[in-house]
Design brief:
heterotrimer, A alpha/beta, B alpha/beta, C mainly alpha, B: alpha/beta, Rossmann fold, C: mainly alpha, two-stranded antiparallel ribbon, 2 strands
């Protein structure tokens, strides 16, 4: 976090609604955050929390019946909301790049890697094929692909899943974007490959000053990667702050519940030698169609009161640590018995 | 809690032991002995002709399992960990009898399952059920929950028509679902609820042994916690034995009494859960533990395991792990290390153990 | 540790959960063209079924025909003044409307019966091939490949040349020409569905192979089969009409639409268009209606669109 830097991306009260039978639902509801150059922001939530839709909104990829209903998205001071489709296309792949869970969303199976990479460069910049090819080769080398010249001539199906994801990352890096949005890019990969990619992404973003939004369901992934974390529930950011603040002293009961649900965190066996049951969150995530009024987490929350029938405002509990909760947990580190 | 359980946390047997008497109470509930599995179709006459004439390359075969032995005691939970392509799912499917091993034996309470008649094997097979990974593909979308749960017990005469409704209701309650949901189709449930229906379906035939193949991998964290707690509660209530297959060390650590680590078709290490997480012996286990994401807020400064998983089509000779192993030396390149006991109940297959 | 045992998971509101059948009906009704096609099809089928009650005369009963009324244009009155030939008459004085209604009956009947038989045979073979695989699968699919490499009209013509004419013969020829489509479609569906975990679960639960095949596998293979069957009914009707037109199909005593068209063909140039054209229009409307319905079914039952 470098407060002296102007943030690369400022998202302010972004709301994305989907019209459907029986009214419209807010998949993203008044979401505000910012990312600084070289910073990694973890966007964490379970399925249906709106984390991917937040990413799609920033990329201008919300298709009808969805629409960005309110708020603003500013990239380096430039307002993106309401941009014509042609200008969005010019931005994507150039100033904003994306990485998906399935690298085949990015890669065309019938084209060689070099063809695809050179095209990506030349779609946004007027340079020769040879220069573009050199850039492509550099990008492959930077993401840790051994013998990049050989890989350039390969087709996607000739590469392993981890390799393909690396190529997708290299394509994202090609035009030195200001912002990369990565949606669960390591979820389908093995632990050892995931570790390598996480490690490399961190270094790359720091060195190039690219801002990175890492969308994931896995708190453990952001723990080792992100500088700051936003936790989403039912379309809203319920808590955000520095990674240590959110993961070590969570203020929102939902964040606490997620941490307690993660098995790695509390595997201390009890006196009988058996592990304790996980402290699970009761109930299940609500459908966006039938959200309770006020705090959406209220029906599953042990701390809820009548007050929670209203939408809780975002309250800054510590510098940079914001939660939307009327009854936040104490944010001083407590000693657990 | 079964009292005999800790005593039976027997070490993995790397060599076949003398066969215990049939139905011996001391025999492990399920024992897999020296299981090999080779995938790849045997060539038919046309392909053989083509190969002989040199027009066709011999079809690639994958040795998914290379002499794996595993025994699981009654009431025990064994975690089986490994990365994709290591053969853990194949081993699970052999354990339940969905795949036949290319060689090796499957013993149930000391009795060789292949020596049984079809009818007997079918009866014993009911005692071994599987919980699947995909909560969508594992339920027949055309059947109501009532039929999903009651079909098998009805066919096998475990229940009669009048008691069916009560039986289904009891099953649903046991897995934490509302019995009023019995009339619904699978698509009317959330992922977590489908997982529960899948568990109830397995419980419907009163199994003793459950093989869970990545059973919580597709679920959200909060739902995963609920289902893991359900597995633990069922173990207490029904005295179930589990083989819990997962790539997630956290999940396995949480549930298992004993953990076996697989790499490219072989078990490389096996030990009681607490032991393997506190004193991992094999370099691959050490690397996995170091690289699994944890909730500790710290940036990784080093990588324990470099490189990619080799293709199972052409595994490296010697120790399969040697190309990625930071400690590999000459011997690892040509000699396969055997599993050897390095502490009570703790076996590891690494030449460093004897170096 | 009992406090933490999960309480029954909260149920989503039961209000908006749709049954699969109801979803199909609703999605089907979204297209007006498809609804029109369905209405047209129902009208034609109903008219064919009720032909004996709807038709002004029985075109097969030679006693009712008056040779003197032959080749009258549409709208003419009969010689005895008892009825009006709305669509004219043919050379034997047969009321074309009645002939078309009876012809539709035969065309639709032959098409549907042949399709159902071919469906049953192809489905059973394809299901077994997809589930068991191996040599049976290889042999069956090679036979299907060879058969499909000939035009179906050729297959049917050869068979009819061997067997001779007759309504049963043409059904056999149509089945022989079409079973392979169903076998292929079923097999590919069975291959996809058979790999899913619910089939493995059924095996582990000790269910019999017949039960797995017919209760678990088959119902999940049906959607693509329904689409193929709907399209193939049209193809079967067209094929039968073609064969009859060529004089290979049904005997003159049971004139289907194809034969009616053929009968009027020679009068086309003499300006007596109605003998050929009206049966042609009836055939066209029938096939159009079936195709409209089948097209929409394909969209509605497409699993890729269904997931949304």
């Amino acid at each position: 976090m470098n407060p002296q830097h102007e943030p690369t991306l400022v998202v302010d009260r972004l709301t994305t609604r989907f019209a459907g039978r029986g009214g419209s639902v807010a998949a993203v509801d008044e979401v505000s955050f910012h990312v600084a150059p070289g910073e990694v922001l973890g966007l964490v939530g379970e399925s249906g929390s709106g984390k991917s839709m937040t990413g799609f909104s920033i990329l201008g990829l919300v298709d009808p019946p969805g629409e960005i209903a309110a708020g603003s998205i500013r990239l380096k001071g430039r307002e993106l909301r309401g941009l014509p489709a042609r200008e969005w296309r010019a931005l994507r792949g150039d100033r904003i790049a994306m990485i998906f869970q399935d690298p085949m969303m990015t890669l065309n199976p019938v084209l060689r890697i070099d063809t695809q990479m050179i095209e990506t460069v030349r779609a946004h910049r007027r340079i020769s094929r040879d220069a573009a090819r050199a850039l492509a080769r550099d990008a492959l080398a930077r993401v840790g692909i051994p013998s990049p010249d050989e890989r350039l001539r390969a087709y996607p199906h000739q590469l392993s899943g981890g390799m393909r994801q690396r190529v997708a990352i290299a394509i994202a890096l090609l035009n030195a974007p200001d912002l990369i949005i990565a949606d669960e890019p390591t979820t389908a990969l093995d632990v050892t490959i995931q570790a390598q990619i996480l490690f490399e992404m961190q270094t790359l973003c720091r060195e190039s000053g690219t801002a990175l939004i890492w969308i994931t369901h896995d708190l453990a992934v952001v723990a080792g990667l992100a500088d700051r974390v936003c936790v989403m529930y039912a379309g809203r950011i319920v808590e955000q702050g520095g990674t240590a603040q959110v993961l070590e002293t969570p203020a929102h009961p939902y964040t606490r519940g997620l941490l307690d649900s993660t098995p790695a965190a509390n595997a201390q066996p009890d006196a009988t030698g058996r592990p304790q049951p996980l402290r699970q969150i009761p109930g299940m995530a609500p459908s966006l169609k039938e959200l309770p009024a006020g705090c959406a987490f209220r029906p599953r929350c042990t701390r809820a009161s009548d007050l929670c029938g209203q939408v809780p405002p975002a309250v800054e509990l510590a510098p940079g640590h914001v939660a939307r909760c009327f009854h936040p947990l104490p944010t001083v580190p407590e000693v657990k018995p | 809690m079964s009292a005999q359980q800790p005593a039976q946390t027997a070490a993995l047997q790397e060599a076949p032991v003398k066969a215990p008497a049939s139905g011996s109470p001391r025999a492990p509930l399920l024992e897999l002995r020296d299981i090999r599995k080779i995938f790849g179709a045997r060539p038919d006459w046309l392909e053989r002709l083509g190969q002989r004439l040199g027009w066709l390359q011999p079809a690639a075969t994958v040795q998914a399992l290379d002499g794996v032995s595993l025994s699981i005691a009654h009431g025990e939970v064994v975690g089986l960990v490994g990365e994709s392509g290591c053969g853990k799912s194949t081993l699970g499917r052999i354990a339940v009898g969905l795949h036949a091993p290319s060689s090796g034996k499957r013993l149930w309470r000391g009795t060789d399952l292949d020596a049984l008649s079809d009818a007997e094997r079918r009866r014993v097979g009911l005692g071994i059920q599987m919980i699947f990974q995909d909560p969508y593909a594992s339920l027949n979308p055309r059947l109501r929950v009532r039929d999903l749960l009651a079909e098998a017990p009805r066919v096998h005469g475990l229940i009669d028509r009048p008691s069916e409704t009560d039986y289904v209701a009891a099953l649903l309650r046991q897995v934490g679902l509302d019995p009023a949901m019995a009339g619904r189709f699978p698509h009317q449930f959330s992922g977590g609820q489908r997982a529960r229906v899948g568990i109830a379906r397995a419980l419907a035939v009163k199994p003793e042994f459950l093989v869970c193949d990545e059973a919580v991998a597709a679920l959200d964290v909060s739902v995963q916690a609920q289902v893991l707690n359900l597995f633990m509660r069922l173990r207490e209530e029904l005295g179930l034995t589990y083989l819990f297959i997962s790539h997630d060390l956290g999940v396995v650590r949480h549930l298992s009494d004993r953990v076996a680590i697989m790499y490219l078709g072989r078990i490389v290490e096996s030990a009681p859960s607490a032991e393997i997480f506190s004193r991992p012996a094999h370099p691959y286990t050490q690397g996995l533990l170091a690289e699994a994401p944890t909730l500790k807020v710290e940036k990784k400064r080093f990588l324990a395991i470099q490189g990619e998983l080799p293709s199972p089509l052409a595994p490296p000779p010697g120790c399969h792990f040697h190309p990625r192993c930071p400690y590999a030396f000459e011997r690892c390149r040509f000699e396969v290390p055997n599993l050897a006991e390095i502490a009570p109940g703790h076996v590891s297959a690494c030449h460093l153990n004897s170096a | 540790m009992s406090e933490t045992s999960p309480r029954p998971a909260a149920s989503p509101a039961d209000s908006e959960v749709e049954r699969p059948l109801r979803r199909v009906v609703r999605a089907y009704a979204e297209s007006r063209v498809a609804l029109f096609g369905l209405a047209l099809l129902l009208a034609i089928v109903l008219a064919a079924l009720l032909a004996p009650w709807l038709a002004p005369q029985n075109p097969y009963d030679l006693m009712q025909l008056d040779m003197l009324d032959g080749r009258l244009p549409p709208g003419s009155a009969s010689g005895d003044g008892q009825l009006t030939y709305l669509l004219g008459t043919d050379e034997q004085g047969r009321d074309m409307l009645s002939a078309i209604l009876y012809g539709l009956r035969i065309s639709v009947g032959v098409g549907v019966v042949a399709t159902l038989l071919a469906l049953a045979i192809g489905m059973a073979l394809g299901l077994a091939a997809g589930y068991f695989g191996g040599r049976f699968d290889a042999v069956l699919m090679r036979i299907a490949d060879i058969q499909l490499s000939f035009p179906s009209i050729l297959v049917a013509m050869i068979l009819l040349a061997l067997f001779g004419q007759g309504i049963d013969k043409i059904v056999i020829a149509l089945v022989a020409a079409q079973w392979a489509y169903y076998a292929r479609t079923t097999r590919s569906a069975a291959l996809v569905e058979g790999r899913k975990e619910y089939i493995e679960a059924a095996r582990l639960l000790g269910l019999s192979t017949a039960r797995i095949l017919f209760r678990h596998l088959l119902p999940n293979c049906l959607p693509p089969l329904i689409v193929v069957a709907a399209l193939q009914v049209a193809a079967a009707i067209a094929l039968e009409a073609t064969l009859s037109f060529l004089g290979l199909g049904l005997p003159v005593t049971e004139p289907s639409l194809g034969l009616l068209i053929a009968n009027g063909f020679q009068y086309l140039y003499s300006g007596r268009y109605w003998i050929s054209v009206f049966p042609g229009v009836a055939l066209l409307l029938l096939i159009l209606a079936i195709n409209l319905v089948a097209d929409q079914l394909r969209d509605v039952l497409n699993p890729r669109l269904q997931s949304q």
